[in-house]
């Protein structure tokens, strides 16, 4: 009998949040090992449990899976959230890759240099409302239903709701020009498993605050890595 | 009857190179629309065929596919380069995602500030030899087979040979501590379709040089402020 998946990460959204969403949408209960210190992280590495010495890691079906996209694809594939054929798969991939780009930007906002915070938020919400959300608005319009692809809930729908809520946390009226997305948001939020995930006490994490940011910095030793600098906005590539 | 896939990009490796490799490995002939100016790119955007106003884009099987990973997954699935089941796919995905990280570092390296080029190069080579190559060396060592996953060529093998060759362009002899990877490389470059792709005149693109880099900067209007800064 299969054990519950175990998620290894720090106590915050980061790259693991999309995994929490998808498992919840699939109705799969999971456990979490939430790391707090660099020592705990080093310990995992020394035990050889992290293929590339990185998190997220999910223990599932006898595998220690790393790389967020690999994990998400596995869950979507296993729980029938990946469309009914190859053509639906590629459409889901095109949509979710755009959503991943957007969600990565939102994830990095707290790491932006403090004096650039407002500029970063503005830059990112503009990208959201000008490049990405119009694509999904149009897709829903063309589809004429509250699923992005095909006739059933897919990973693309789950990810879209996650991204919509993230954008709204930065700009509460972000959906004002997108009637279909508003309908979509209302419809998907009501689905039982999603609704449950949106309740207090679920595994869903709150947005990053200062304390969480300091914790993440300590854990991931963020002095390493490559920095991207666009004008005055500093984004960190983890 | 299906036309050949058409690849829309500029005349360079960038993110499209992995697509060229995978189509070649699958034995699929393709055409390329290589734009040269910012206007070419803008016209493509105006034509409404780019979902996110970005390239790569591949016209294939009646679709305008964008997002490199979506394109690669489609090709891998269609041409049986994605393993035999969900678990093999998971392993392939874990491997190719790591290789993509390597690919991105190498692709972005030309954006380095001149005074940081050496530092960034060292970083890339350190990552290659300490983080990524050991994983694939170990995989080949452990199962003793000719391919990374399962018993047949997969997307992971094609991606690996591409990455190995690119890292070797930065520093020859980089595989000296990896005997299994050396054997792997020797074997895979002999496969007929791979060998063909490695011949002059194939769709394979050369490494970035300063001239071609300036062209891509102009096309994508990469701001002079966009630099790659390494912090050690």
From TrEMBL, chain A:
Signal peptide position in this chain? none
Domain named GST N-terminal is located at 3-83
Q: Which UniProt keywords apply?
A: Transferase
Q: Does the keyword Flavoprotein apply?
A: no
Coiled-coil positions are none
The superkingdom listed in its UniProt entry is: Eukaryota
Enzyme class name: transferase
> From the UniProt record, which GO molecular function terms apply?
glutathione transferase activity
Q: Which PROSITE patterns match?
A: GST_CTER, GST_NTER
One biological process GO term for this chain? Answer: xenobiotic metabolic process
E.C. numbers? 2.5.1.18
For the keyword Transferase, the answer is yes
Domain GST C-terminal as annotated: residue spans:
85-207
Family assignment?
Answer: Belongs to the GST superfamily. Alpha family.
Name recorded for this polypeptide: glutathione transferase
**Organism, per UniProt?**
Phascolarctos cinereus (Koala)
- Gene behind this protein: LOC110213568
TrEMBL record, chain B:
Q: Which GO biological-process labels does this protein carry?
A: glutathione metabolic process; xenobiotic metabolic process
UniProt keywords, alphabetically: Transferase
- Report domain GST N-terminal positions: 3-83
What range(s) does the GST C-terminal domain occupy?
85-207
Q: Where are the transmembrane segments?
A: none
What's the Enzyme Commission number for this chain? 2.5.1.18
Pfam families attached here? GST_C_3 (PF14497), GST_N (PF02798)
Matching InterPro entries? Glutathione-S-Trfase_C-like, Glutathione-S-Trfase_C_sf, Glutathione_S-Trfase, Glutathione_S-Trfase_N, GST_alpha, GST_C, GST_superfamily, Thioredoxin-like_sf
- Write down the SUPFAM superfamilies for this protein, in alphabetical order: GST C-terminal domain-like, Thioredoxin-like
User: GO molecular function terms here?
Assistant: glutathione transferase activity
Family, as annotated: Belongs to the GST superfamily. Alpha family.
**PANTHER family reported in the protein's UniProt record:** GLUTATHIONE S-TRANSFERASE, GLUTATHIONE TRANSFERASE
Q: What name does UniProt use for this protein?
A: glutathione transferase
- What is the organism lineage in this UniProt record? Eukaryota, Metazoa, Chordata, Craniata, Vertebrata
Q: Its encoding gene is what?
A: LOC110213584
